[in-house]
Amino acid sequence: SSSLLSLSLSSPSPAVKDGTCLPGIDITKLTSISVPPLSSLLSPFAFALVTAWFFFLYLLELCLPKVIAYGTPLVGTGERLPYRINGHLSFWVSLLVVEHAPWQGTGLVYLYDHFVEVAVAASVFSALLSIGLFVASFRKGAVLAEGGVSGCWAYDFWMGRELNPRIGGWDLKVFCELRPGLIGWMVLNLAMAAKERQVLGHSSLAMVLINVSQGYYVWDALYHEQAILSTMDVTTDGFGYMLAFGDLAWVPFTYCIPARYLAEHPSGLSNTLTLLFALVGVFGFFVFRSANSQKDTFRRDPNGICVKHLKFMNTKRGTRLLVSGWWGMARKINYTGDWLLGLSWSLLAGFGSIVCYFYPIYFAVLLVHRAWRDDHACSKKYGNDWIEYKKKVPYMFVPGLV
Q: 129-146, pLDDT tens digit by residue?
């Protein structure tokens, strides 16, 4: 594997005097790192693998039994686009193929041993896709996202000009949000588990729990696939490099870091502490899923038996804002649950390297920025109603604190 990554995930050095300022990172070694040749990073086989994975999942979307769901009305036209909903089935078929194909077992270890090459291939693929999307967005009749037509080509390329780029009935944005990257993340985790068995001769409790927890998280997202159709990513943001790179490269290859670390570095945690950290994730997921399901159910049917008791605030736009239940506690309570779940994944890897905590650190910054963007957008959207709503629900993330 790459010397860069093996340095990042090295065992902790014994003392600060030796150059270790953070557990697992020896800054004195940075001066001795040679820049790897480009040929070692660009692998035609890895690129072919990533491309094949992308179109394999498209074929599953196209061919597997599906339900047709409709998105929210488009601004200006009022049209509701149809979406093929079968991500849940695609998840199981994908894992079945990966686990029982001829490369099963030792073949999966390729993804660990050539992690950097595959990550670079996914990054290149997402860049090429973004360029294609950007060029295609200038065609006549393309519906553009408000945030992607600033006039600055670099910003518009990053944010994405076109709101819902499609090839026939294939919605590229929704497909990339849930399929190649998320299911790919699960496959990478299985590769890390295969590597650990190769190295240690068995699967550790921490590795099993990370695979189960993250696997369930991915499965849950695909099981509730229809809920994504009303999220800001789908209804508001264009599909540009930000989402393409995030979906196809960033998510799978950074979110699997704790499992990658455990492949060759035991967590050093007792079974009791390991299970305790797993319970942090269970609680976080409960908050995350319960809050999201409550909002989605209310949006679809405010008079449904599970949500008809909730209090809400009418707005001049004719929409309703929840001010009780989970959403009366904090305006982004679901973000808090999601972050706690991510923290638990890092905790399960132990305290041998700060690199394992990249995800909760990065995710905290991402969620704060996303909450700020959403607050700004809602302030423009609802005007004085949003000010009144924030008086009713004053906390952003943690009731009584933040």
A: 999 999 999 999 888 998
